[in-house]
């Protein structure tokens, strides 16, 4: 029996700001907080609405799934919003994620080139579809291999919905704590989805200066090793 979904976003810290200038604000989003509002007043609290309480003109330029933590950039001005969205559309932005996946990987690094399509029968899930799916490419590298799990670095080239979850599932190594795709053992192995947007590189939309942001996760130590969960 599936329990009903109850949205209980974390409130401490309310906002963890990593960087801010006149054009953008960069935050470390906690797992469990929506990036943008959901449908209905019970889903109104989100990263964007919290920022808009202080900056009413703030707008999203990209998003993370509710269960995913890590770096999110929000534009504070309309011109900045358009410029930043264009960087994402042109795939200029560089993204690096950390994930803990089930099992032992056969290869220490590689690339996954598998097209994805929205699963219309099971929203918001995605599915692999070689006929009409959209191109999706992810590079991966094993950082630490344990007996039953591995810490991996993921670098998506494209930005499809649930891309990292689906690509690791395709390899046979679902992300721990993934309520959508993990098998029961992998789901029970973590208290939440162990996927974190660790780094983001882009260009300041006004002066073109390269900017690099990083955020610590709650499942990796400062030395880059898995914490005991």
From TrEMBL:
Which InterPro entries does UniProt cross-reference here? Answer: PsdUridine_synth_cat_dom_sf, PsdUridine_synth_RluA-like_CS, PsdUridine_synth_RluC/D, PsdUridine_synth_RsuA/RluA, RluA_PseudoU_synthase
Query: Catalytic activity annotated for this protein?
Result: uridine(32) in tRNA = pseudouridine(32) in tRNA; uridine(746) in 23S rRNA = pseudouridine(746) in 23S rRNA; a uridine in RNA = a pseudouridine in RNA
Domain (Pseudouridine synthase RsuA/RluA-like) spans 23-170
> Mind telling me which Gene3D superfamilies this protein's record contains?
Pseudouridine synthase
Function, as annotated, reads: Dual specificity enzyme that catalyzes the synthesis of pseudouridine from uracil-746 in 23S ribosomal RNA and from uracil-32 in the anticodon stem and loop of transfer RNAs. Responsible for synthesis of pseudouridine from uracil.
Q: Which NCBIfam families match?
A: rluA_subfam
What is this protein's record name?
Pseudouridine synthase
Q: Which organism is it from?
A: Rheinheimera muenzenbergensis
């Amino acid at each position: 029996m599936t329990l009903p979904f109850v949205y209980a976003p974390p409130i401490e810290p309310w906002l963890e700001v990593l960087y801010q200038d006149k054009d953008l604000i960069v935050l470390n989003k906690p797992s469990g907080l929506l990036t943008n509002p959901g449908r209905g007043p019970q889903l109104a609290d989100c990263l964007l609405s919290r920022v808009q309480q202080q900056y009413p003109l703030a707008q999203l330029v990209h998003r993370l799934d509710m269960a995913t933590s890590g770096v999110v950039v929000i534009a504070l001005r309309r011109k900045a919003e358009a410029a930043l969205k264009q960087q994402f559309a042109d795939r200029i932005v560089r993204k690096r994620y950390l994930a803990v996946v089930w099992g032992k990987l056969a290869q220490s690094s590689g690339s996954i080139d598998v097209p994805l399509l929205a699963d219309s029968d099971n929203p918001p899930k995605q599915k692999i579809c070689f006929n009409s799916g959209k191109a999706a490419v992810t590079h991966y590298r094993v950082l630490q291999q344990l007996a039953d799990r591995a810490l991996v670095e993921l670098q998506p080239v494209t930005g499809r919905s649930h891309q990292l979850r689906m690509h690791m599932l395709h390899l046979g190594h679902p992300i721990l704590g993934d309520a959508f795709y993990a098998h029961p053992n992998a789901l029970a192995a973590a208290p939440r989805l162990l996927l974190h947007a660790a780094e983001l590189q882009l260009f300041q939309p006004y002066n073109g200066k390269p900017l690099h942001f990083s955020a610590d996760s709650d499942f990796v130590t400062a030395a880059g090793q898995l914490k005991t969960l």
